[in-house]
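FIELD: query
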Amino acid sequence: MNKTALITGAASGIGYELSLLLAKDSYNLILIDLNMANLQEVKTTILNLYSCKINCIEKDLSRKDAASEVYAEIKETSVDVLINNAGFGIFGTFSKTDWQRESEMLNLHIHTTTHLTKLFLPQMIDRNSGKILNIASLAAFQPGPLMALYYASKAYILSFSEAIANELKGTGVSITVLCPGQTKTAFQKTVSKTSSKIAGDFYGACPKKVAKSGYNALLKGKTVIVPGRFNKFLSFLPRVVPRSFATSMVRKIQEKNRTSA
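FIELD: result
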């Protein structure tokens, strides 16, 4: 029987590319995203390439009860791979950004990621088999002025994933956390909705390559994966320079992106 993978934020970007990789390896898929029309397009594309079963679920995962609703809907299905990929960012000084939107982001990155892991992990441990991939960011390694809560929430995902990975040693279950740098996805368009001044042009890594790096690390049971040599260097830098310096550098980069629009 084919194994089953659940992917959040599956309609585009890294989530979509991971879905393709899983389908290629004969996984049945549970795809979750905000827009059913987009999910159906992804489903059609994948089924034209690979033979698998696909269940599409339209769900706003930024709501606190979303994880419970997903679990209730598919609780009869054995999930072998869980990928917590859905996310978005907000640009601006914390004193001026919209709290409602920030609250939704924190619910998505922290509450839903944690709750989905909490719900599906015990089953994996009981089977002595299972893999979880949480998507953090290069932002997880340092504070991020002008995107303070985004950086902080990604730092939570990194810390949470590393801790649980340690707890799971010897269980047959592994957790991997993927920390990509700038990637060419719809993420920047979402961030831009919060600031008309943020840079319109977005340069970054290919989501297909980022997804492949994360997928390979998942299969090998690695805990932390930072794609790209320069990104690895940047992730290490805050360990050897004062945090105040690293924070100031991040702010300069953010301000440059904002004024270059």
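FIELD: remark
The longest helix spans residues 99-127.
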